Amino acid sequence: MTTTLTPAPSAVRTARGGGSAARRGARRRAALEWIAVHSLAVAAALFFLLPFVFVFLTAVMTDDQALTRELWPHTWEWGNFATVWNTPGFLTWWRNTLLYAGLGTVLAVASSIPVAYALAKFRFRGRGLAMMLVIATMMLPPQVVVVPMYLFWAKQLDLAGTLWPLIVPFAFGNAFTIFLLRQFMLTIPKEYTEAAKIDGCGEFRTMVRIVLPMARPAIAAVALFHFFYCWNDYFGPQIYASENPAAWTLSYGLESFKGAHQTDWNLTMAATVMIMAPVIVVFFLAQKAFVEGVTLTGVKG
Question: What's an example Gene Ontology biological process for this entry (predicted)?
Answer without folding.
Answer: transmembrane transport
